[in-house]
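Protocol step 4 of 6: structure prediction from sequence.
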Amino acid sequence: MGKKIRQEQSDRVKEMLGIADINEVFDHTIMKIVDKTQRTIETPTGLDEVGKAAREQALRTSAAYAILLVEKRRIRFLEEKGI
């Protein structure tokens, strides 16, 4: 049910923005990932230096993977539309 609703919302957004503007949507999503990751890294924790470094590395790795998935989805979307 939730997947269907998300798909319908996604379809409406695509219709409103048009394909030419879809790159802005993907870019905005990537920037949100980067900003959220940086804010999370800067959030104070009770970890020692080693723990902080490990946490930061894990967060950066997760963000890089999320960005990779968004970029792959962008490519797949553009290929589906024949662009």
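Step 5 (inspection) to follow. Residues 20-80 form one domain.
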